[in-house]
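Whiteboard transcription, Tuesday session. T.W. wrote the C-alpha coordinates on the left side:
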Protein backbone atom coordinates (compact mmCIF):
# COMPACT_ATOMS: atom_id res chain seq x y z
CA UNK A 1 0.00 0.00 0.00
CA UNK A 2 2.92 2.33 0.63
CA UNK A 3 4.01 2.05 -3.00
CA UNK A 4 0.50 2.82 -4.21
CA UNK A 5 0.34 5.90 -1.98
CA UNK A 6 3.59 7.15 -3.48
CA UNK A 7 2.30 6.66 -7.03
CA UNK A 8 -1.32 7.79 -6.78
CA UNK A 9 -2.80 9.11 -3.54
CA UNK A 10 -6.39 9.04 -4.81
CA UNK A 11 -6.06 5.38 -5.82
CA UNK A 12 -4.51 4.67 -2.43
CA UNK A 13 -7.42 6.24 -0.54
CA UNK A 14 -9.94 4.35 -2.65
CA UNK A 15 -8.12 1.06 -2.08
CA UNK A 16 -7.60 1.74 1.62
CA UNK A 17 -11.28 2.51 2.12
CA UNK A 18 -12.09 -1.05 1.05
CA UNK A 19 -9.02 -2.85 2.39
CA UNK A 20 -9.08 -1.24 5.84
CA UNK A 21 -12.87 -1.36 6.08
CA UNK A 22 -13.35 2.09 7.59
CA UNK A 23 -16.26 2.01 10.00
CA UNK A 24 -17.01 5.73 9.91
CA UNK A 25 -15.99 9.04 8.42
CA UNK A 26 -13.60 9.75 11.28
CA UNK A 27 -11.40 6.79 10.37
CA UNK A 28 -11.41 7.90 6.74
CA UNK A 29 -10.43 11.46 7.69
CA UNK A 30 -7.63 10.17 9.91
CA UNK A 31 -6.20 8.31 6.92
CA UNK A 32 -6.41 11.45 4.77
CA UNK A 33 -4.73 13.53 7.47
CA UNK A 34 -1.88 11.02 7.57
CA UNK A 35 -1.37 11.39 3.83
CA UNK A 36 -1.40 15.16 4.07
CA UNK A 37 1.18 15.13 6.86
CA UNK A 38 3.48 12.89 4.82
CA UNK A 39 3.12 15.21 1.85
CA UNK A 40 4.05 18.26 3.93
CA UNK A 41 7.05 16.57 5.54
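and on the right, the sequence the group agreed on:
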Amino acid sequence: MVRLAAIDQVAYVRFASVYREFKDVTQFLDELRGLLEKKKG
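Someone added at the bottom: The first helix runs from residue 2 to 7.
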